[in-house]
Automatic annotation (TrEMBL):
<protein>
    <recommendedName>
        <fullName>Aminoglycoside adenylyltransferase</fullName>
    </recommendedName>
</protein>
<dbReference type="Pfam" id="PF04439">
    <property type="entry name" value="Adenyl_transf"/>
</dbReference>
<dbReference type="InterPro" id="IPR007530">
    <property type="entry name" value="Aminoglycoside_adenylylTfrase"/>
</dbReference>
<dbReference type="InterPro" id="IPR043519">
    <property type="entry name" value="NT_sf"/>
</dbReference>
Length: 252
């Protein structure tokens, strides 16, 4: 699959660099279901996002999804593709200028810290990129722009929720409440906790474990009650087995 993709990218003049990130580029164990996470750096990505025929070149497509995310306020379009005979491939299209910024800053962004592989570099841009640190997820000290953007985004979404509430559009309000606004809240919580230890203790391991245990207890209580009301036999034995395994895994 990667060979086909690289060969295709080689023949597309707008594509300058292709980088593999994620589990297949790190020290993590992978299996046949592990995704290919590909960052495609382009001079112009319009031809790849306005027409999706190109995704059929590599294998028969079962289903695909058009998504986007934002990195430093720049919209990054993606195509998430499930193929019939290959693992899922996540294509993301980045402006080539963003790769130049990474190289010039001599600092890896979060998604490259735990591993990356350069599959194609037509202009030798990546030759001076720092090596991956393989240190897992680290909460770095945010920039002024990141903090302010998160603050403004949170309050913008809050306004939208109230607007939908006033219109009695309760489902729209609930979707926003449980989607974007909670992501911004979680981001601020992570920064707040990391700032207490001068950004050094980024794992917050024990707090996360305690929180996870509370969530599992709540989930067990709710799922038992739901199963009882629906006359469904609760799989108590299976739940107990996986719970024991999880605790042994954490404490081992």
């Amino acid at each position: 699959m990667l060979t086909k993709i690289v060969q295709w990218a080689q023949g597309e003049p707008e594509i300058r660099v292709v980088i593999l990130e994620g589990s297949r580029a790190s020290d993590c164990n992978t299996d046949a279901l592990s995704d290919y996470d590909l960052n495609v750096f382009v001079t112009d990505g319009a031809s790849f996002t306005s027409n999706n025929h190109w995704i059929t070149i590599f294998d028969d497509v079962l289903v695909y999804q058009k998504e986007k995310f934002f990195h430093k306020n720049i919209e990054i379009p993606t195509r998430l593709v499930v193929y019939e005979n290959s693992p899922k491939v996540d294509f993301s299209f980045w402006p080539i200028e963003m790769l130049h910024e990474i190289v010039d800053s001599k600092t890896l962004p979060e998604h490259y810290r735990n591993g990356y592989k350069v599959l194609l570099d037509k202009d030798n841009i990546t030759q001076d990129m720092p090596a991956a640190l393989f240190d897992g997820f680290v909460i770095g000290k945010p920039t002024k722009d990141e903090v302010l953007t998160t603050i403004y985004n949170f309050w913008f979404e809050t306004y939208c929720i109230v607007k939908y509430l006033k219109r009695d559009s309760l489902w729209y309000a609930k979707v926003l409440e449980n989607g974007p606004i909670k992501r911004f809240l979680l981001q601020m919580i992570l920064w707040h906790e990391s700032s207490k230890d001068d950004w050094k203790n980024n794992k917050i391991k024990e707090d996360t474990w305690r929180s996870l245990c509370k969530m599992t207890e709540l989930f067990k209580k709710l799922s038992r009650e739901v199963a009882a009301k629906l006359s469904i036999e609760y799989p108590g034995k299976s739940v107990a087995q996986i719970e024991t395994y999880i605790r042994q895994l954490y404490n081992g």
